Every structure is written in C-alpha cells, then in structure tokens.
Amino acid sequence: MENGLGAGVKPNVILITSDHHRWDYMGCAGEESIKTPNLDRLAARGTMVNRTYCNAPLCVPSRIAITSGRYPMNTGCFTNRHAINPQIPTFLHALRGNGYHTAMIGKLHHHVHVWDGDFIAHEADVQTLGFEHVHETSGKMGSGSIGCECQYTRFLREQGLLEAYRSWTGRFRQGNATMQPEEAWPWDKEFTQDAYIARKACEFLEQVSPHKPFYLHLGFVGPHDPYDAPQAYRDLNVSDVNVEDRIPSGAAGDGGRRELTKWQAYAACITEVDDRIGRVLDTLEAAGKLDHTVILYTSDHGDNAGDHGLWGKINLYEGSVHVPFIAAGPGIRQGAASNAIAELIDIGKTVCDFAGCSSHYLDQGLSLKPLLTGDVETHRMDAFCEMGSDKMLYDGRYKLMYGDLTRDTRKELQAAPYNGPAFGRPVNLPPDRISLYDLQEDPYEQRNLADDPEYRDIVAEMKEKLLNRLLRNMQSVPDDAGSVL
Which in 20, 162, 369, 403 has the greatest CB count within 10 A? Predict the structure, then answer.
C-alpha cells in the first residue's frame, strides 16, 4: 500500500473495537496457537503499540473514555450503570465539522444494559454524540438473556431464532451472574452477532459515497463471554501446544490447572472476530478504499483468561487492563512494533490528527500519529487506569494497584441482585489494598512487592507519581454538561 496521500486528501478512518481481547492473544503478538491471520496482516501493514492500556477495565466506562476523550473521574462514568450524557463533547463533532461522514455499526455500549432496554430508541442519543449513520447492537448478553431490543435481535426475530437464542444464553446465567461459557454456537455460523455486524459493515463500505471521507466505528462483540464461537473456529485453533506449558505454573493462581476447555473457547472467539475483520478488510480493498484508509484496532479491555484463577475483567491485572493496538494506513510505518506506552483515551486525538482537525478542548488524550508515522519513539511516561475508587499506574517497569478489586470486601453501595463492581461499584470509599509489581521481572504479577521493606522507597515513589497523575487528570468543570457527577 502507499504510505501517504496527496496534499489536501483526507483519509478515511476506521476504528475497529472488540470486547474482552487481551493484548497478547494474537499471532502477531507471539501467541501462535490462536489463529489471527487478518490481524497479523494488518500488523504487517502497520504498527503495533505493544504497551497500550484501557482507562477502565469495564465496558461502559472504557468506551465512554474513548468517545469523550476524558477519564472516568471527569465524566462520572465508573460502571456499567453510568450512562453517557448525549450532550457530552466528542471528537466526532470535530470530524463532522471537517467534512467527514461519521458512522457507528455494531457494539458501542454507551447505554445501560437494563432489562428489556431499547437500543434502537437509543440511536437518537448516539446521533447526538456525533454519529450520522447508526446501526447499533447490544452485545451478546444484552441481545440474549437480558432481553434488549436492537438491530441484531430484529434480525434473529426475522430468522425465527430470537426466543431460542435468549433461552440458550439464559442457561449461562447462574447465581451472581456467573457464566459457564464453553458451548459452541448451535446455529448457522453466519447468524452470530459478529457475522451480522461484519455484513452490515461491508454493506456500508460498498454503499458509502466516494465524494466524502468517512469515519466508521466498527464494534464487534467478541470475544466477550459467553465464549460461544461456532465449532469451525474452535477446530482452527486445535494444536499440539499445551496451553499450560506456555504460562508459568503460578500464573493460573491457586485454583490449580488452567481450565483448558474454556481457554480454547475464548481463543475461538478471538479467531472468529479476526475472520470477520478479514471480510471487512477484503470488502474495503475490493471497493478501492484500502490504501486511502487509516485502520485502528483495539479492545475496550482484556480478559484474565485464567490468569490468577480469574476470568473476565473488572480488576487491574495485566490480562484485564492491557489491550492490543494496531494501526495501519497512509503514512503509518509498516511492520513496526513500538514499546511506547499509550492509553485508549488517545484515540480521539489520533483520529483527528490523521483527519486534519482538532478535537474538543476537554479531550485529555495525546495523538499517537507522531509515534505511528515514526517521527517520535516515545509517547507517554506512564499509563493510568481506574475502576471506581481504585486506581492503577504503570511507569514502564513498576505497576501500582491502589486497590485490588479481586479481594475487595466492601459491600457499601452494591446493587442487588448483582453485588459486583459492574453494577454498583463503591466510588467514594478509599481502597483497602495496595499492590506493587515489577513487570520487567514478574510479567505475570505473581509477587506483590508492596509489603517488602526493600521496595518501600519504590512504593512511595509510585504513590507520588499516582498522586501527580490524579492531579493532572482532574478537570475542574462542575457545570459541564458532559459529566454525570
């Protein structure tokens, strides 16, 4: 592909997001037992930023941070119960002002997943955020047992499958929203939500006007649980590699042996997302748009996938907060990998920089364009992540977790019936645990150094760095319509 466009030519931009994809589970990231040929080819055509972190290890607050360019402490969106104010300033308005057609297809998840929620009615709010074309789906559980109405549930209803699908996903819910997500998709593999999203994206790319640049946020729902990829994708990842042998013996936590079957199901969901991305890239190329399009790939957060005996997210361990980031397109270095530190909050300003405009004045991100084009080698000094009152700072070697969501015993402000942080995280109480990890020597976070006398000075230094970062992050805008505080 060409590494540049003519003077004054604005590139198209596609932001592809998945859900629950941890940073190291791709072939191009060294995980050869998980087949991701399309992400691999995207990485070969572009640059991987290997130390990218989400700003909240949960769907809604992380995604709202991307769209708003602001930290959860400033939007007030800490959990999946905190919806976005549609009047919030976003980088999308700047794109539209610069002549871009803006579109959202798939999972955006700026809406609270309440029982029987209506995501189609919510599309008006998504348009207020700055998207002109909206075709939103509500995710696996939203479309399934939670009972939300969205474009995908309309499709399933037309196929006569909606009630069966909701009954099937309902069997995964047990007690405190615990999932047993190991069962393969039982219907036509072209009926999965990610297959549907890819088809709608391909239709958009085939029909969008060539006379105006476009920005597309394409949101896939996998590899979020239930890990229900069709069997065909599970078969692709069959390998002689013993998953246990690739991870230090302690990495699966005290629970003992890694749940291999569940791991394989999660891996298959990644492979399905990769396959759907490949179809979109092929359509983009067939339409003659590939060489004129900047493509960004990332995920809203990761998945512990058995590390520390945990599955899912909502904690500050690497599997939960460390995400993939791949960029390819005009002017971006090809076949490059950077160890610079980045945050998902940087996406808005990065998109605007490639588009030739400026984001809104409250945007707290930093454009990655100079890094992606090879003009600089560093980006951020540290990465910040938060979940309610609990905070994390990573400085390139040490990682301070000021609060440990996996061992939190607080029950205040928890919302029944799900007494978990996704639904009612305490945000006004001090954290009750502190952890320090040396990721250079201990990448799987097996040894907490916080209580080791030899690391007393490091703990103090990291606390000071975190305090300074909190002060820099904080925005004094009490009358801002974009905050729910």
Answer: 20
Query: Which of 15, 19, 41 has its CA nearest to residue 278?
Result: 41
Tokens 């998980």 locate to 34
**Domains within the chain, CATH numbers bracketed:** 12-385 (3.40.720.10), 386-473 (3.30.1120)
**Extended beta strands in 73-186, E state:** 101-107, 133-137
DSSP 211-234: TS-EEEEEE--TTSSS----HHHH
Q: Kindly indicate the confidence band of residue 262, based on its pLDDT and cuts at 50, 70 and 90.
A: confident
Per DSSP, what are the bridge partners of residue 41?
A: none
Token couple for 215? 């920005």
Task: Check: CB of residue 166 under 8 Å from CB of residue 144.
Answer: yes
Strands 133-137 and 46-53: unpaired
Nearest to 277 by CA among 43, 38, 41: 38
Q: Are strands 12-18 and 214-219 parallel, antiparallel or unpaired?
A: parallel
Could you count the other beta carbons within 10 Å of the beta carbon of residue 421? Answer: 24
Residue 176: pLDDT above 50?
no
Helix (H, G, I), strand (E, B) or coil at 103: strand
Q: Which residue has the tokens 């013996």?
A: 249
The whole model's pTM is what?
A: 0.93
What Å distances lie between residue 181 and 139, 141, 273, CA to CA? 15, 11, 17
> Looking up tokens 């995280």, which residue turns up?
425
Buried b vs exposed e over 320-356: b needs ≥16 C-beta within 10 Å? Answer: bbbbbbbbbbbbbbeebebebbbbbbbbbbbbbbbbe
Separation of alpha carbons 35 and 259, rounded Å: 19
Q: Which amino acid is at 98?
A: N
Residues in the chain, total: 485
CB 419, CB 376: distance < 8 Å = no
Phi and psi at 214, nearest 5°, equal -125, 155
Q: Are 293 and 284 in contact (CB under 8 A)?
A: yes
pLDDT in tens, 4-50: 677 778 999 999 999 999 999 999 999 989 999 999 999 999 999 99
Closest CA to 112 of 145, 79, 70: 79
361 Cβ neighbours under 8 A, 6+ residues apart = 89
DSSP of 234-300:
HHHT--S--GGGGS-GGGG-TT-S--HHHHHHHHHHHHHHHHHHHHHHHHHHHTT-GGGEEEEEEES
pLDDT tens by residue, 100-146? 999 999 999 987 766 668 889 889 999 999 999 999 999 898 888 78
